[in-house]
Write a structure and sequence with these properties.
α3 crosses α4 (about 130-145) and α9 crosses α10 (about 250-260). By secondary structure, the protein is of the alpha/beta class. α4 (about 130-145) links the parallel β6 and β7. It is globular and about 50 Å long. The protein has helices at about 30-35, 80, 100-105, 130-145, 155-165, 180-190, 200-205, 210-215, 230-240, 250-260; strands at about 15, 40-50, 55, 85, 95, 110-115, 150-155, 170-175, 195, 220-225, 240-245. An eight-stranded parallel beta barrel has the order 1-2-6-7-8-9-10-11, surrounded by eight helices. It contains ten helices and eleven strands. Helices cover about 35% and strands about 20% of the residues.
Length: about 260
Amino acid sequence: MSERRFSQAGSGLVVAHRGASLEQPENTLAAFELALAVGAPAVEFDVRITADGEAVVMHDPDVDRTTDGSGLVRDMTLAQVRALRIEGADGQVHGVPTLSEALSLLSGRAAVDVEIKNIPGEPDFDADRELAVEALHAALDEVAFVGPVIVSSFNPLSIAASKACRPDVPTGLLAEYGVDAHAALAYAAAQGHPWVLPFVGKVAAAGPGFPAAVHEQGLLLGTWLTDDPAEAVELFASGVDAVATNDPRRVVAACVEAFDA
């Protein structure tokens, strides 16, 4: 299989966090379509595994916050998850996409950042097997996905598992709110992950030389999360390679004005 790279474009890579999630329900096909329509070159979404081993796009361990149902994803079959409904602010009703549906929609149209949800301390954590990682790589092949891919996670074991089975697919270490950006960089570099993805506040706290320090070690720097277009422009101007946002419409427009005028 040809190598898949998640590379910067233009002044930087605007990553639509769970799609255009400020305007459409997060992690839905509608949110992904809108992200593409407003010019986002990359889309981020989350993957969890159902009781019958199917991969679906869902951020939380349970479906309570985002759907009309309740309970853990891992305790539901795919059919039960498919029956859930997500109502948007405009009254439109959406479903929970499968991983394959999300990849099929985005193939050839955007880069994807697929966040693996298998986090210690969460009720669906599986310490023995990285089922979401396995499902992702199977789906990439099944869909014959066209475009750059990154596999990211807050769990170092998940991205290590991805790197071990498919070293051609880049990995990114997500760092929690409280993790120092320099510490995240040191760990990501030592483990051979090409991307380090600290919280935006920690990137700022690391000082103006931090993006250069990342690049000197041969890594790329992404950050989460800002919905402030001016902050996104400042981050890109400082050398940050990718910025995740819930509001790609405004962030993309600000970047076009700032860098492409």
